[in-house]
Design a protein that fits this description.
5-stranded mixed β-barrel; 13 helices; 13 strands
């Protein structure tokens, strides 16, 4: 055997190897095939594993009963979605298949997404309505009453639309003597909601505005969408000034209609709601003036009758009679008081005389007057009741009814 010729170890394999690819090269080839074969396609499925990281991109899985597909919606697309994505909801998704090379995983890049069975804007409307309703923004209790006769009205709408003409025509026809401030804004398209909200906020800095109308004429749901934006709803809710929302036609109900203090079915009705009819107000004022005059006349008649009765009364003709009568009553009272005091003094004098008489009957002077005397110790002035208290030579004092003597004891006889 000639071993000088080198033979391939695997001759068959070496002949069939046209190209050896790296993993990256293979992944790129697969990506090219998928991106060209599945470009701009519609897919239906249910959303699960929804993730919204801080980058703003949205990651999710589209699935049905037999398979699942990873998908990503970049921030620029996600920011345009009006509704909230939720797990379990069915969607129609438009996009293209690509491969995420670091993980060798194919995925769908979403460019559009719509709810199944309901429009995207309608879903956004329902979701915002439910959320704001739970916060109480639609509660009747928080709605402010409209002024009966405003002096200054602000209107937030487009200068080029039919709504402003309708509102001004109605106000001028019903009550032209009112001041109107127009704040022109975009009422549809990009940035319209922000302009409307800013207008509401700015007008609340004016202290002399009594009521505000926001609105526009009819249009599609997309045309009216600015009045369904949350920023407008928040501004209407925070407004110090009562707000009338007049958007589209009667069948069009927007979020601003629900939040506003009063909903007008049309801009024309807003003009009717915001001011009364001048002729009706004038008639009412004439009637009120007539009633006031009649009431005042009746009051004057009643007062005049009262004055006439007073003038004819005895008191008015003889005004001092009552004073004299009161003076007489006072004199009588003083007399009765003096009599009572005199009687009381006499009673007390009589009682005092009795006491004096009793005291006089018990006086020792009465006994002395009958010829008796009182002998006392000369030094101690103490009455002597027994001869045993004396000794010979003791000086004693003897008091008579009239006068007294001092003597000495010469003998004691017991």
């Amino acid at each position: 055997m000639n071993f000088g010729t080198t033979l391939p170890l695997f001759p068959d394999t070496a002949k069939g190897r046209n190209e050896i690819l790296t993993v990256t090269e293979l992944t790129q080839k697969i990506r090219n095939v998928l991106e060209s074969g599945f470009f701009h396609i519609w897919i239906t499925g249910e959303v699960s594993n929804l993730k919204k990281p801080s980058s703003g991109h949205v990651y999710l899985t589209l699935k049905d009963s037999g398979a699942q597909l990873q998908a990503v919606m970049f921030k620029s697309v996600a920011n345009r979605i009006k509704f909230d994505l939720q797990d379990g909801m069915g969607f129609l998704v438009y996009g293209s298949i690509t491969v995420y090379e670091p993980r060798g995983q194919y995925q769908l890049i979403i460019e559009k997404i719509e709810p199944k069975g309901i429009g995207a804007l309608q879903l956004a409307f329902l979701q915002l309505k439910e959320r704001l309703g739970k916060e109480g923004l639609f509660d009747p209790g928080r709605k402010k009453p409209l002024p009966v006769l405003p002096k200054k009205i602000a209107i937030v709408t487009s200068l080029t639309g039919a709504a402003i003409r309708d509102i001004l025509n109605v106000i001028n026809r019903r009550f032209a003597k009112v001041e109107i401030l127009i704040y022109p804004v975009k009422v549809q398209g990009e940035g319209a909601a922000q302009e409307i909200a800013r207008a509401i906020d700015d007008l609340n800095d004016f202290q002399d505005i009594d009521v505000m109308i926001i609105g526009r004429g009819g249009g599609s749901l997309e045309d009216l969408w600015a009045f369904n934006e949350e920023v407008v709803a928040r501004s209407v809710s925070a407004s110090r000034i009562p707000v009338i929302s007049a958007v589209g036609h009667e069948i069009d109900v927007t979020i601003s209609d629900l939040v506003a203090d009063k909903r007008a079915l049309t801009p024309t009705e807003a003009g009717e709601l915001v001011v009364p009819r001048y002729d009706q107000v004038k008639d009412s004022l004439v009637k009120i003036r007539t009633r006031l005059i009649q009431t005042l006349y009746n009051k004057i008649q009643i007062i005049a009758s009262s004055l006439l009765r007073i003038e004819k009364s005895v008191m008015f003709k003889r005004p001092f009679d009552k004073i004299h009568r009161l003076q007489q009553e006072t004199d009588d009272f003083i007399q009765r008081l003096a009599t009572a005091c005199k009687h009381l003094v006499e009673l007390e004098q009589e009682r005092l005389s009795g006491i004096v008489r009793r005291l006089e009957s018990m006086s020792p002077l009465k006994v002395l007057k009958r010829g008796y005397s009182i002998t006392t110790n000369g030094k101690k002035n103490k009455p002597i009741k027994s001869a045993e208290e004396l000794t010979v030579g003791t000086k004693i004092a003897t008091r008579f009814f009239e006068g007294s003597v001092i003597s000495s004891v010469v003998d004691v006889i017991e």
